[in-house]
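Listing S7. Sequence submitted for prediction.
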Amino acid sequence: MKKCELCGAEVQTDLKACSRCGFEFQRQIRADSRDRALLERHTGKEVEDVKRELRKSQSKLAAYLDNIKARELSIEELVPLVDESLKNLQIPLILGAEDELKFNREEVEFIGLISGCLVNADLKSGRPVGNEVTYIKLSNALMSLGKHGEALAMIEKALLINPRDRDALYCKAKLLFDMQRYGAAKKCLDKLTASGNDDNARYLSELIDQLDCQSE
């Protein structure tokens, strides 16, 4: 059994549309994008083996970050450290409409730690001190943890640096979609589809149209 995303009805897993409201289900992929990214960069290794190696390096970075929280950290020290942390987490830059990220407890704490350090640095500097990729990846991570407000603040910083960044625009659209702010999400997607071919943007836009039709 599975639950309809539109009306909440419990229906048979193999159905392509809800027997109650007629909603057409998304393609049943639900890939863990982070696992896929891990394997692509560690060919020949099992996911669990790679995760075990990354947990060791993450523990070292988390301990270092804990130690430096007690003192003033310069931007020159912070930004490369956060970027290195995100590489260890292997967070994809782009998440498809159906992709999801999964983090264990230690990784959740780790994400909170590095995002908190970056936010504090931004406040002290009065401007975003990271780059677009840093904010996009943190936004993806925070969105997956259900921290939509924090995720939106991160992606807005990426767009402040570069308002035309296509990855940032799509990330914002997906975030707004998850927040059920479909009209705002569609505006971001329209900018992407108007300026070039984008399969992810087109698919998400079609999904929003489908949801709008079902709600009428």
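Caption to Listing S7: primary sequence and predicted structure tokens for the chain studied. DSSP finds nine helices and two strands in the chain. The longest helix spans residues 47-68.
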